[in-house]
Amino acid sequence: MALFVRTVALRHTPDNGRAHIDWMWAPSPGLPGPDERVLTTLRLEKTPLDSGERFVAERIHDHRGRYLWFEGEIGRGLGSVERVWEGVARLLDQRADRFDIELFEGDNALRIEGRARVGHDASSESAMYDCVSRRIAPSTPPALGPRLRGM
Q: Has residue 40 been placed in a domain?
C-alpha cells in the first residue's frame, strides 16, 4: 500500500567539505518528532528532480525529524543547510536494499527506483544505490499543510 509522506532536499554546505544535497523523506504519514532519527536520507550531487534518468545516491544515517523544516547553521562544525525543494511523495516500497518513490512538483511527477549496489551492505551507512528516474503522469498528491517552521 502506498503512503503519502513529506520529503525535502537540503543543500548541505559542510564547514570543511564539498556541498551536496541531502534528500530526506519521512517513513510514514504525519510528522515525526523533532529529535526522532527516522528520516531516510540519501546524499546526492543534485536534487532528485534534477539528477537525470540515472544517478547514484549514497545512503547515510537517518536524520532527525526537524530537518523537514529546519534551515540554517547546524552547529558542532557541521556547516549549514538550505532548503532547495520540499514536497509530498508517494512511498511505494522501502526495504533495506531498495526504494520506490514518486515525487510531485506542480504538473511534473517522477518515479524514482533505487537499488543497492551488489556487494554493498544495504543495511549500513554509506551503502550506494543505483537510481533510475522516469517521468510519470502527474496526479494530485495531498496538500503539504502548514510549513511548520519554528517547531
A: yes
Joined together, the cell numbers standing for residue 9 give: 532536499
Kindly state the DSSP code that residue 121 receives in the 8-state scheme. Answer: -
76 within domain boundaries: yes
Say which residue the cell 533505487 belongs to: 114
- Cross-strand bridge partners of residue 81: 12, 72
Residue 68, domain extent: 3-135
- Residue 129 contacts residue 57 (beta carbons within 8 Å): yes
Query: How many structural domains does the chain have?
Result: 1
Q: Would you call 73 exposed, middle or buried from its count of C-beta atoms within 10 A (0-12, 13-18, 19+)?
A: exposed
pTM, full prediction:
0.87
Q: Give the integer Cα–Cα distance in Å for 143 and 114.
A: 25
Beta strands in 96-126 (DSSP E): 98-105, 108-116
Tens digit of pLDDT for each residue in 19-68? 999 999 998 888 889 999 999 999 999 998 888 899 999 999 999 999 99
Let me know if residue 94 belongs to a domain. Answer: yes
For residue 105, what is its C-alpha cell?
512538483
140 in a structural domain:
no
Q: What is the CA radius of gyration of the chain?
A: 15
